[in-house]
Amino acid sequence: MNLKDLYINYFVSKGHKQIPSAPLVPENDPSVLFNTAGMQPLIPYLMGEPHPYGKRLCDYQKCVRLTDLDSVGDKTHHTFFEMLGNWSLGDYFKKESIAYSFEFLTSVLNIPIERLAITVYEGDDKIPRDEVSADAWKSHGIKEERIAYLGREDNFWIPGDSGPCGGDTEIFYWRSDDEIPERFDPEDDRWVEIWNNVFMEYHQDKDGNITELTQKNVDTGMGYERVVAVLEGVDDNYLTSVWKRPLKTLMEIAGKPYEGNETSMRIVLDHIRTSVFIAADPAGIKPSNTDQGYILRRLIRRAIRHAMKLGIDTRSDFTTPLALTFIEEYKKYYKELEDNKEVILEVLKGEKEKFAKTLEKGLKIFEKVAQSSNKIDGETAFHLYDTYGFPIELTKEEATLRNMEVDEEGFNEKFKEHQEKSRTASKGKFKGGLSGNSEIETKYHTATHLLNAALKKVIGPSVHQLGSNITEERLRFDFPCDHKLTEEEKKQVEELVNKWIEEEIPVTHETMSKESAIESGAECMFIERYPDLVTVYTIGDISKELCGGPHVQNTKEIGHFKIKKEESSSAGVRRIKAVIEPKEN
Prior knowledge:
- The chain has 18 helices and 18 strands.
- By secondary structure, it is of the alpha+beta class.
- The strands form four sheets. Strands 1, 2, 3, 4, 5, 6, 7, 8 and 9 form a nine-stranded mixed β-sheet that branches. A four-stranded antiparallel β-sheet has the order 12-13-18-17, with helices on one face. Strands 14-15-16 form a three-stranded antiparallel β-sheet.
- Helix 8 crosses helix 10.
- The chain is globular, with a radius of gyration of 26 Å.
């Protein structure tokens, strides 16, 4: 049985409800381009909002992380991965969570206890050492020598500078044929982390003051690929059963073995898999030069460059058989892959063809430089890489054909500068964390529902939400419309929203089945995003929508609504950017 099935079956047997994997593109978290962890879609519920499925949850969540993009090509890094998770929302806590983890690892997966080691939080001047977790592990037979106490950097979780927080306990596995040492050394790379249980029991404010939480939560995460590698006894994730069929397909396409071509094969496999999942997402991401579309474009083009290094004829339709293999492998768990198969194939094929033209332009730049110099300087080499997708190896090959030199050192300097800028930018874009829950953002969530309702009245009933993005500064709302809104239409929409705010309408919510919600007339974007039980938010007789919240309790709390901009988002889609201003006295 697949590890995902074993995991879900176990936690369901312990009273947990399985929730569906959220889409890769988060609907209500503007701090990230993609969901980066299993807990991210559960943020409102970790903050105290009741979950429709109750207090015990489990799932497998598809995730994309790009902070380690430059490391992809080694044995263990991936841009797309799956996270197995289970949660307690104010129900059980440390002892029970540790008991479940121990039983699953030793009784379900049959991992010998002697191959396990543990870290717990050592405490500080504000939070005591976590002896509760240490004692719980000892009660299950983990020796004291196999438990290490580590500080904030290793065993403490907090979303940024403030918010719910607490120590965690991490579970390590001895992945080596060497004799297992009696004493656990967390610095020894032969010990590999396989599971992390976070215990949110405190709140830290922006001044660093710590208070105890009323609702104490458990949030655990287990990396699927890593644990499969452990269970199958390999130290290269790409040699596990997860990659067996895709790797076989790639070797057939390239006509080369894996040995000696590992780096490029890993990059092609990883990037095509991630591209397949991004292209299948209900958000409808297409390759572009901004946000998620830029990432998709970058991944596809990087895969093509490494396919070239493998000697694959990139004019051939090599992406299709690879994509079909991934769709076949994962469709049991993510039906959107099968549903959007044609979209996926077209996205890959279309971007490959565009990239071929870009490469042609790059060669023309190359020819132009060759006419006036016998050397490609570092800046030009990097320009060819950054703008036209020329890997340095391709630039060197083309230079050799023309008896030219390449300033590889200068290229490397420019490349490092570029990496540093990307890393700095990614700290903001890919940080994740508990966002979308501040007071102002809560107001924007409800204002978005009012805007949707107002547009239906002014423009017509065909208006519906195609996408939204909320920050502390503004809301952004995309909707189908065949024309630019007139000044009069914008004024009518604004006046309607503000009229409803002034009417002080209560905002209520109730939990019901997805089918009942739709039958009741509740509107939702992407029905497949929601579990079988859903929360429906109602604003008088004005709006009724499925939503994950959070929302104000009464429209009077919102403030004054003002449209700042109305523009085209894409063909047939308009975009409104609006703000909430303090009410005038």
